[in-house]
Design brief:
This protein is of the alpha/beta class. The protein has three domains: 45 residues, no CATH class; 130 residues, Response regulator (Rossmann fold, 3-Layer(aba) Sandwich), CATH 3.40.50.2300; 150 residues, Rossmann fold (3-Layer(aba) Sandwich). The protein contains twelve helices and twelve strands. The protein is elongated, with a radius of gyration of 27 Å. The chain starts with 8 loop residues before the first helix and ends in a 12-residue tail after the last strand.
Length: 354
């Protein structure tokens, strides 16, 4: 079977009996530089051939691709789906297209993806960094490429960023736990220390414990190495076995998946929530604000709600401002998207809302 011939400007020019320059002028709306008969002939041939000019080639010629490269660290996460939705919502309204790529929490892959996006002519980059130690991104910022990082900051390097404002709600949550009679809040986190979002949550927990309880013990921060349900169960079981009867413990979980795993482990241990043990956590799976996963469990789980959809919107707005030159390029802007606290039955020892 003969391969279909690609329709190009050369083909259109040959069929119309005019030069390539004349066809190019027609495509760019410069019909005043040719006769009406020539313009009509070119139009008829274009319609007969169903020719579509390459918008990408045009964009590269004009240095305007209207494309934004977006690199996420884990595209399978529900957090990411809401974030992507927020970015796309704003960018599409302004006529921009987004190229979403997944680094799978690998700095090496993230670096390769950023280089690939640069060669494709993207006008700006939004990056959800794989690591707190991610200095190579500074290359793009220094070269003049508009760059925004989201959810995670980078050590020792000032970037324009959008992050979750987590400190105040964690402080309010710890105060709530004390008011309800919990004597020992503990944190279940993950060992990915180079993840800034988790690092800041651990730091905020420590600060809140010192301010409200007057102490913070390292043994009250449990780092889960393998990030799986069985390890969570074993760590919780061993912890419960050495508790004194007078201690009232509440577990604060670092993210939604950890919350679900701790909840499951409590069920396996036949413990009553909140009578035997309290549980609360971060709800960062906000793909549908009308359905909060922790509120579907029984008892309902107290959560700090992280709005990744709004983080995505703010990142998109920020990158568009940088591209348009509306912001002072020398100024590093960091936006904190507020997080809300939802107190539910899992931390209500006294059965009343604060």
């Amino acid at each position: 079977m003969e391969k279909k011939k690609k329709v190009t400007i050369d083909v259109i020019a040959e069929a119309a009996g005019v030069s390539k320059t004349t066809v190019s002028r027609y495509l760019n709306g410069r019909t005043e530089l040719m006769s009406k008969a020539t313009a009509k002939k070119i139009q008829n041939i274009i319609e007969l051939c169903d020719y579509r000019p390459s918008e990408y080639a045009r964009a590269l010629k004009n240095n305007r691709t209207k494309m934004i490269g977006i690199i996420v660290s884990d595209i399978l996460s529900p957090w990411t789906s809401a974030f992507i939705g927020g970015c796309e919502e704003v960018l599409s309204e302004e006529g921009y297209s987004a190229l979403f790529l997944n680094s799978n929490n690998s700095i090496k892959k993230e670096k390769e993806l950023a280089a690939s996006l640069e060669t494709r002519g993207v006008e700006g980059l939004i990056v959800n960094p794989a690591s707190y130690n991610d200095p190579y991104l500074m290359k793009y910022s220094l070269s003049g490429m508009p760059l925004v990082i989201c959810d995670r900051l980078v050590k020792d390097y000032p970037f324009n960023a959008v992050i979750a404002g987590i400190r105040e709600p964690i402080n309010a949550l710890i105060a709530h736990l004390k008011s309800q009679g919990f004597t020992r809040p503990v944190l279940f986190s993950l060992t990915k220390h180079e993840n800034y979002a988790r690092m800041i949550r651990v730091k905020a927990f420590k600060e809140a414990m010192l301010a409200i309880y007057g102490y913070c013990n390292d043994e009250d921060i449990f780092n889960i190495k393998n990030d799986n349900s069985e390890e969570v169960f074993l760590r919780l079981r061993d912890f419960i076995e050495v508790l004194s009867p007078e201690e009232r413990v509440c577990i604060l979980c670092v993210n939604t998946i950890t919350t679900l795993r701790v909840f499951s482990a409590i069920q396996r241990l036949n413990l009553s929530i909140p009578k035997d043990i309290g549980i609360c956590g971060q709800d960062d799976w906000c793909w549908d604000n009308s359905i909060r996963l922790p509120s579907l469990l029984y008892p309902e789980i107290t959560t700090i709600n992280i709005d990744s959809h709004e983080i995505g919107r703010q990142c998109a707005n920020m990158i568009l401002r940088k591209i348009a030159g509306d912001d002072d390029s020398e100024r590093c802007e960091i936006i904190e998207v507020p997080c809300s606290l939802s107190i539910r039955a899992s931390t209500q020892l006294k059965g009343t809302n604060d």
